[in-house]
Design goal:
Layout (H helix, E strand, L loop, with lengths): L12 E7 L3 H14 L9 H4 L15 H4 L8 E6 L6 H8 L4 H4 L3 H5 L3 E2 L22 H18 L2 E8 L16 H9 L7 H11 L4 E3 L9 H10 L2 E4 L5 H15 L3 E11 L2 H6 L2 H12 L1 H6 L5 H4 L3 E8 L8 E9 L5 E9 L2 H21 L4 E2 L22 H15 L12
Parallel strand pairs: 1-2, 1-4, 2-3, 4-5, 5-6, 6-11, 7-8
Antiparallel strand pairs: 7-9, 9-10
Helix pairs in contact: 1-4, 1-16, 7-8, 7-9, 8-10, 9-10
Amino acid sequence: MPAPLDITPPTGRLGILTPGMGAVASTAYAGVLASRKGLAAPVGSLTQMAHIRLGAREDARNPLIREFVPLAGLDDVVFGGWDPISPNALEAARTCGVLDERDLAPLSGELEGINAMSAVFDQRWVKKLDGVRVKTGESKWDLVQQLIADIETFRTENECDRLVMVWCGSTEAYQEPTEVHETVEAFEAGLRADDPNISPSQIYVYAALTSGVPFANGAPNLSIDLPCMEQLAIERGVPVTGKDFKTGQTLMKTILAPGFKARMLGMRGWYSTNILGNRDGEVLDDPENFKTKEVSKLGVLDTILQPEVYPDLYGNIDHVVRINYYPPRGDNKEGWDAIDIFGWMNYPMQIKVDFMCRDSILAAPIVLDLALFLDLAQRAGQSGVQEWLSFYWKAPQATGDVPPEHDIFIQQTKLKNTLREWMGEDPVTHSEAG
């Protein structure tokens, strides 16, 4: 067996900070508060509900993950964040309309007490939104200093021993890296010079890492996947992970595509379209913001199906993704998939999937899991990109020169084997059954 890591116990309080306190964040807050009160089970959360097999199946060792690794408990979690629109989590939750009033009412006092700090916001990056609670400063360097002050004030006022940050804000306009993103020194000079290529999400990442706070990027924004941020995360000894919460349609792709490949069934095309009417849908109605999301969603199939290895089966796929803003749908996103596959003697077949999902309901437990796992990683002395958390992402980051893994079943094995290794248990490579 491997030697276990020396992991610092999760004593004291863990603060979870979210840039963005809209549908996803407010739903995550409410779910944790409801779980603490015994009003709802934390469905969808691996850290709270999943078991992990240890040793051989006949050993019958199958504890809950939260009983196996030293995670922070839900009673020790405190929430905070920034938002350019809503003043507190209760108003945000009511405005977004994800949760019914009957579920919000028992939590209303606590949610109302989670006040939003004024946000770093620039409409140039999110044209469809108007920020009304926005920080001002002489330069982006000044905005960074304000965020760092916010982080320390929250840490002190809430008596937090540790903090993590999970981006729950909107998708920013599409962006390619520039020279300002090459090194930490170039980025810091760009902050002072008010470089237009530095987005709000990048300002939050810099503030978090320089404050020693782990960061998870829940949107497809170009933020932690930059040379300067990867360098800074290593220098400061801070774990990071991203990007873009894997919910809805992409979740279905990472479940279905491995099955087609396992049976060596060919594929000719995969057409995906979505309709949603929440703030995310409104933001993505802008072509530049949609392009950011499109790049994130399109990268899934190639790495799972390996067209370079199986050209006869997957070398000629038409993969199309569309997102349509439709206000009546609200947060209840509908994803339609038309999948054209072929089998023996090239005879064609079709699969149709209509997933009537609730986007924030699927994303909320991811926020919790990432916060608890990043906190664990930091206490275990880890830093930089946490590839073992690829399970949660549409566009996961990989370390080194290898491409990221998208197969959700391989990702699950990687996640659990990492936990086993850290705790001094042997890996399990052939079955997760317990």
